[in-house]
Amino acid sequence: MKKIEKQVMYVERDVSWMYFNHRILQEAEKSEVPLLERLSFLGIYSNNLDEFFRVRVATLNRLADSEALPEKHRKTLKKTLKTINQLNEAYAAEYAQAIDTVFDELEQHHIRVLNETQLNDEQKQYLRRFFYDKLNGSTNPIWLSAIDDLNVFEDNRIYLVVRKAHIDGDGKVKYAIIKVPDRVYGRFIKIPASDGFDNIMYLDDVIRFCLPLIFIGTKPSAYDAYSFKFTKDAEMEVDNEADYGAMEKIAHGVNSRKRGVPIRVIYDREMPREIRKRISDRLNMRELDTSLAGGRYQNHRDLMSFPDCGHAGLRYEKWQPVMRPEFLSEESLLDQIRKKDRFIHVPYHSFDAYIRLLREAALRPSVKEIKTTLYRLASDSKVVKALICAARNGKKVTAVVELMARFDEESNIKWSKRMQGEGVNVIFGVEGLKVHSKLLHIKTTKGDIACVGTGNFHEGNARVYTDYLMMTARRGLVAEVEKVFTFIDRPFSPPRFRELLVSPNSMKTRILRMFDNEIKNAQAGRPAWVKIKINHITDTDMVQKMYEASRAGVRIDALVRGNCSLVPGVAGVSDNIRIVGIIDRYLEHSRILIFCNNERPRYFIGSADWMPRNLVNRIEVMAPVYDDDMRRDLLRTVDLGLHDTINGRLVDGHGTDAIQPVAEGENPLRSQEELHKAYAL
């Protein structure tokens, strides 16, 4: 097949990510979404954008500056950066409007945000007490004249640059930097009610009010304060030549982020030009870096925790997770799994079902060994506690911990040290390959058990991420899960897998082969279709193969949450491809593959997206699903998502991403709500 022109039919990964994040912003603009949930979406949008600039834009900047790359590639990178910055500027204006709209609507519910100029005497007195009780000692100004390089400051924090002008007539002006201590006191401070309103203040404004108290003892002055924040390159400098262990290397790399190069600064658009120049000079911003005028307040991620002031109706109704009957039964869960595959679908199902499995394994004398992969861990991990319990009970326990799980390195290091101290054998993955697979292997005298999941073994994630976890005693599958652990321990001798799809071993090749089978069937006039639920599709070979399948008549329906480099609906190229992206109360995270296989469908679940990093640079696992009950559940999940007309957006490759229309004669459908109802029955 002739290759399709990449520049026409391939959306650059990072441009497609901007489209994805915009879908989150669009959710915040929907009037039918509860107000405080809309604020949460605005917080998620802001937090996503910060991480994106810290990691992806930083990488693009680094590559665009690299003389090792051909000039053609550098020009392409610069073009991508230009597109990102244009989209960012356009979305920033939309974002500011969305925030104003939501806050205006909150006032209709008697919740309002006040600044330092809108306070009555009682509120002023309250804030003075608040300063002396709490803020005093946490707001330590540093004179700007004493700062040569702002890069030594912590990034992704809120700073106020204070203009202090003497009022005794000498005309002297001084400038100072204050870091807002939001991680200590929270971003939002509730102050005394007035006029029938619950009143909230940004901590930034509390500090603005307290400036005369902060600078007490200096000459009487008039004060102005303007907020800014900057984002550094989050690429870690890990010294692979240093003579210390993996854990120490990563810990050192985390610290190196503090020395990263600033690549984005957002500042209050009211900030005088003279002050902007002083800040910019001390950040050493470069041509390709982003400097963006914003509103009075930065770091809107805090909107995710905006106080509800007792207005519970302004959030989604709580959906309680369901505990499936088999996990409540007094019968041994290990024995139940030996009889029949079991599964959970969080957060609709309770993650405590998995904790029960680990706890039983820790206690049963028949269990001799437990092995698991751990990518991200909760701050108070029940999973780790269960593993430690097993080790204390004499089981041989091995935990493969991925120390390079971005922004969770410190937490993973902490838990690794704890486990090592309790007798757990901790393995730090494979050099050069992230271990992203979600696996558990339990060796027993009565027959081994394995679990394969789509999400992290993380209680917090399991409350907000949609993920499947399959528990099986099928000998072929269980034996191959054990082989993955052998491969992790001895990567120099990669095993062959018959049932599992394993990267970087053969996953990509085998998925492409299944597409070829569908193409062959379509050309022979046999049924041919593919249904996919996945987070990202950016691998060029996968994109080209999907276009080839579409041209051959294979119907492809895909749920894609995030990056999507495909352009569907192009006549003669991708008109058999439909892509739906869902943004709702839960983060869509499960990966499900269903291939028609001439009406003998093949089902898979697992950890891998279709990106080069997943298919080439990580240890990922997709497992076949044979159990009929689980297959029906997977198909229902995918089909409901594909028919979602409330939160399902048609991903078009251009960033329009309109809500999927309701078919004539049908009612609007919200897939997550339908799944919640079905599981609650």
Could you give the topology of this structure?
Layout: H1 6-9, H2 13-28, H3 35-64, H4 71-107, E1 111-113, H5 121-135, E2 142-143, E3 159-166, E4 173-179, H6 182-185, E5 188-194, E6 197-202, H7 203-214, E7 221-232, H8 246-256, E8 262-268, H9 273-283, E9 290-294, H10 325-328, H11 333-339, E10 342-346, H12 352-363, E11 367-374, H13 382-392, E12 396-401, H14 409-421, E13 425-427, E14 434-435, E15 439-444, E16 449-453, H15 461-464, E17 465-472, H16 475-489, E18 501-503, H17 507-523, E19 529-534, H18 540-552, E20 555-560, E21 577-582, E22 587-588, E23 591-595, E24 602-606, H19 612-616, E25 618-624, H20 628-642, E26 648-650, H21 671-680
Parallel strand pairs: 1-6, 8-9, 11-12, 12-13, 14-25, 17-22, 19-20, 20-21
Antiparallel strand pairs: 2-4, 3-4, 3-7, 5-6, 7-8, 10-17, 11-15, 15-16, 16-17, 18-25, 19-23, 21-26, 23-24, 24-25
Protein described:
With 681 residues, this protein is of the alpha/beta class. It has four domains: 13-100, Methane Monooxygenase Hydroxylase, Chain G, domain 1, CATH 1.20.58; 123-296, 2-Layer Sandwich (polyphosphate kinase like); 325-489, Endonuclease, Chain A; 501-680, Endonuclease, Chain A. 39% of the residues lie in helices and 21% in strands. It contains 21 helices and 26 strands. The strands form four sheets. Strands 14, 18, 19, 20, 21, 23, 24, 25 and 26 form a nine-stranded mixed sheet that branches. Strands 10, 11, 12, 13, 15, 16, 17 and 22 form an eight-stranded mixed sheet that branches. Strand 23 and strand 24 form a beta hairpin. The chain starts with 5 loop residues before the first helix and ends with a helix. The model is unreliable at 1-7 and 236-259 (pLDDT under 50).
